[in-house]
Amino acid sequence: MLLPEQQIAIVYAVADERGMVGVQVQGRKILVNHKRLRLRVAATDLYPEDYDMSIVFDTPQVRKARKLMTKRHQKGNVINLLANPE
């Protein structure tokens, strides 16, 4: 939970040397200080061990492009992870 707004967030990156944690809130990925977070449910309780986390964090377009890349070469097929889907 992201405080003080009390929004539900999903952690996608562990804390760095400054204590900033990567979280996804309402489709946006942001960095917040670890002091602004409170654990509601552990990941081990939400997802099984072999769960594909790309389903949670990637857009359908990125997943489709990644699947096509594993099958064959397709000219112009690029995955841009830094692009904001909004």
Structure report:
The chain has 86 residues and is an alpha+beta fold. The protein has 2 domains: 1-50, no CATH class; 52-86, no CATH class. The chain is 23% helix and 19% strand. The protein contains 3 helices and 3 strands, in the order E-E-E-H-H-H. Strand 2 (20-25) and strand 3 (28-33) form a beta hairpin. The mean pLDDT is 81.
Write the layout of secondary structure elements.
Blueprint: E1 10-13, E2 20-25, E3 28-33, H1 43-46, H2 54-57, H3 60-71
SSE sequence, one letter per element: EEEHHH
- Relative helix content: 10-25%
The count of β-strands is 3
Distance between the termini: 23 Å
User: Which runs of at least 5 residues are low in confidence (pLDDT < 50)?
Assistant: none
User: Structural class, from secondary structure content?
Assistant: alpha+beta
Radius of gyration: 15 Å
- Compute the average pLDDT: 81
Strand content: 15-25%
In the sheet with the most strands, the strands line up as: 1-2-3
**Count of the domains:** 2
Q: Major sheet, described briefly? A: 3 strands, antiparallel
Instruction: Write down the overall geometry.
Output: elongated
Count, helices: 3
Give the tags:
single chain, 86 residues, 2 domains
Summarize the structure.
The protein has helices spanning 43-46, 54-57, 60-71, and strands at 10-13, 20-25, 28-33. It is of the alpha+beta class.
